[in-house]
Description:
Layout: H1 6-12, H2 33-40, E1 44-50, E2 56-66, E3 70-73, H3 75-78, E4 83-87, E5 93-103, E6 108-113, E7 122-123, E8 134-139, E9 147-159, E10 162-167, E11 179-182, E12 186-194, E13 202-206, H4 211-215, E14 220-221, H5 222-225, E15 236-239, E16 244-247, E17 250-253, E18 264-268, E19 277-285, E20 291-298, E21 304-310, E22 313-319, E23 327-333, E24 344-350, E25 354-359, E26 362-368, E27 376-382, E28 387-395, H6 405-419, H7 422-434, H8 436-477, H9 486-497, H10 504-517, H11 521-524, H12 528-542, E29 546-547, H13 561-567, E30 569-570, H14 572-585, E31 592-596, E32 599-609, H15 620-629, E33 635-643, E34 649-652, H16 653-664, H17 670-673, H18 678-692, H19 700-709, H20 714-726, H21 730-743, H22 750-759
Amino acid sequence: MRLLILPALWLAVCPLLSGKDKPEAPKTPLSSVSALTQASRPSIVTVTQFGRGGGQDALGTGFVIDKDGLIVTNLHVIGNARRLEVELSDGSKHEVTEVHATDADLDLAVLRIAKKDLQPLTIGDSDKVEQGQDVVAIGHPQGLQFSVVEGVVSAMREVEGHPMIQVAIPIEEGNSGGPLMDRQGRVQGVLTLKSAVTNNLGFARPINALRPLLEKPNPVPMKRWLTIGRLDPRAWEPLFNGRWTQHAGVIHANEQGQGLGMRTLCLNKEETPGLPFEVSVMVKLDDESGAAGLAFCSDGKDQHYGFYPSAGKMRLTRFNGPDVFSWTVLAEVSTPAYQQGTWNRLRVRVDEARIQCYVNDTLVTELEDNVLRGGSVGLCKFRVPGAQFKRFHLGETAPQKAVPAQLAKELEAELDKYLGDSVQRDSTMKKLLTEPVAAKHLLESRAKELEEQAASLRELQKVMHRQSVGQEITALLRRPGDQTELLKAALLVARHDNPDVEIEPYLRGVDRMVDELKNDAAIKSKSTSKAANRLVDYLFKENGFHGSRNDAIDDPSNSYLNEVLDDREGIPLTLSIVYLELARRLGLQDIHGVSLPGRFMVAYEESVPAEAESKETPGKEAAKKSEAATPPARETKRQVYLDLFDGGKTLTSVEAEQLIVQSTGSEVEERHREPATPRAMILRLLHNLTSFSKKPEQAMPYLDLILTVEPESHGDRLQRSLIRARTGDREGARTDLKHLLDAEPEGYDLGKISALYESL
C-alpha cells in the first residue's frame, strides 16, 4: 500500500506552481526588510471569523498563494461552522466561498475567495532552510495590521511528531497563518505556534507541508462548511448565544454565554416524558473553576433547575428569573463520588414533589421541591472555562452502568481485604505499632501487591471490553448480507481500541446524510451510474472527504471510522465503507466493494451496446447483412470502478487492474473481482491494523479480534501462536498450535508445527 503514495510524494517535491502562473523569484536578495515588506504587503490578508451574532469571534493572518483567489492560513483561525471574511491589503473585504483544503493534524487551511488577479507570494523550499538564516514575518498581532518583525531560524524541531521551524520571533494572537519569509521574499513557513516559555520564540509549519493540500485538495463549499461541527438543530436549541459544537460524538461548550453568570443552555428538543422522568449525561469540565451539567424543567427562557459541579461541590439550583436575586441554591454538597478532572455521570430523577440527584450512580442530594415542572431538559454551562458532554439520555428511567457480577464480586473482595471493619482496623493498628519498622516494610509490600492486583483488574477490564466488542461485531456479521450494518461494525473496530467512541452519534450523522440525498433526482433515477456519481460528488466535492495525504496511510486514525467521519480523511477501504453504507441505506443495491490487491475500490455494472465491447469493427457490407439477419443490437454489462482514494475517479476494469499492477506489482485474479462481503471488509480492516503495528505484540488485540470473527483463519492463528511464544505465553501458543494440528490445513508444514508444539 505504501507504493500507492509514491507518485504523490514525487509531486510533493516538485515546484508548486509552473508556467506563467508562477511568480518569478527575485534574482538577488532584496536590499532591506523595508523593501521586502513593501513588495509583500499586497499579498498579506486578514482572515476574520464571525460568530452567530455577527460579531468577530477570531482574527488571524493569511497570504495569497494563487492569483485566482486561494488564501493560506491556519485551520484554528477559521474554526468550524463560522462565516469567514478575507480583507485584502487595499481594504476590500471578500466572503470566503469555499474552504479549498484543510489538514487538522498540520493545522493548515486553504481558502478561496471570488477575486481574480491577486498577487501571490513566491513559495520556497523549506527543506533547504538553515539554522541561523535571516527570516521576516508579517501579520496582525493583537489586531495590529501589517506588523513586520525580523529574526532568525533558531532550529528545526519536531513538535508532536511533525517538523517545525523554530524562530526567534515573537508570535501573538493574530499572527497565526502569516508567512515566514526569507530575505528573498520566498515563503518558507506558516506561523502557527507561540512558545509558552518566552515571548521571543515561536514556531512555523514548513511550507513544504502545504504542497500535498494543494495537489490533493478537499474542497467544501461554505454552505456545507457552516454545518461542520454544528449541533443538529432538529435535536438541540442553544440559548443565551453560547457556542455549542459537536465532534466525535462529544458536545463542546467552549465559550461564555450572555446570560447572567455567563450562563448558556442547550435544550434537547425531544419531548419530555410525563412524571416521573430521568435525565442523565456524562460531563467533564475543562477547569474545575467552571460549572456545567444538567438543566431541566426549563421554560425555554430564564426559568429552570440546574444540577452541576461548581468549585468541586455538587450544586442544585432553581433559576426563577434572569437575575441573581431570583436564583435559589437548593443544595450544595461535597461528595467523594465526584471525581475532579475527568468524566462524571450526572443523573436526575424528577417526580411530582421530589428531586433526586446522583453522581456516578451515588445519590448526593434528595429534596422536596415542586416549584417548576414540565418544560424542556438539556445542558447548562456557566462562566468562562469550557465543558464537554456525552451520552445524554432522557426517559422514564436512565440506563445505569451495570458491573458484571463476577467482576463486582472480585472488586468487593479486594475492598474487604483493604478496609475490613473498624474493630479489626483498631486491633491491627495496635499490633503494627509494636514493631513500626517491620510494619512499614510489610505495608509497603502489601500496598505494592494491591497495586499489582489493581493493574491486573484494569487489564482484565480491557480484555473484557475487547472481547465484548468482538462478540458484537461477530453478531452483526452473522446477519444476511443486505442487513449487515457495515458502518456500525467498522465503528466497533474503532471502539475496540478506544472505549470512549460513541457509536450512535455517527450513525445519526449518516442518517442525516441519507436524508439529504434520498430525494435527489440522480439517486431516485433508475441509473446506477448517475446515482453512483452523485454519491461521489456529495462526499468528495461537497463534503470534503479525501484520501490521506503525505506518508500517513498507515496512521491508525485512517482506519478508525469515527476519525474518518470527523476529519473526512481516510484510506481506500474506510472511504469505501462510508460510500457503501450510504449506498446501502439509499437502496442502491448494484453498488459493491471490490477487494483488489493493495487498493480497495467500489464498483458497479453498467449496460452498454454489445458492439461497444467488440474488438473488431465489421465492414459496411458485413454490417448490412448482420443488421438484416439479426434483431437490434443487444446490450451487455461492463464493470465500472470508482477509486475513492483518488476522489472517486472513474476507471474501466482494464485501467483499474493496470493501476494495481503498476502500484503493487500484483496481478488481479478472478477472486479479487468478486463483490466483497461485509465480513471480508472488516477482516481486511483488521489486517490493515495488524500490519500497521510497529511491534508484533501490538498486533495481538487485532489477531484476537480476527480469530473471533473468523476462527478458521489459519495464517492468523499461526502468527498469533508465534507472538504468544515470543512473549512468554507458552500455554496460549500451544493452544493455537494444537488447533492447527487438529484442523490439518492444506499448505502448512504440519511437521514443523508439531515440532514447535512439542518444544513448548
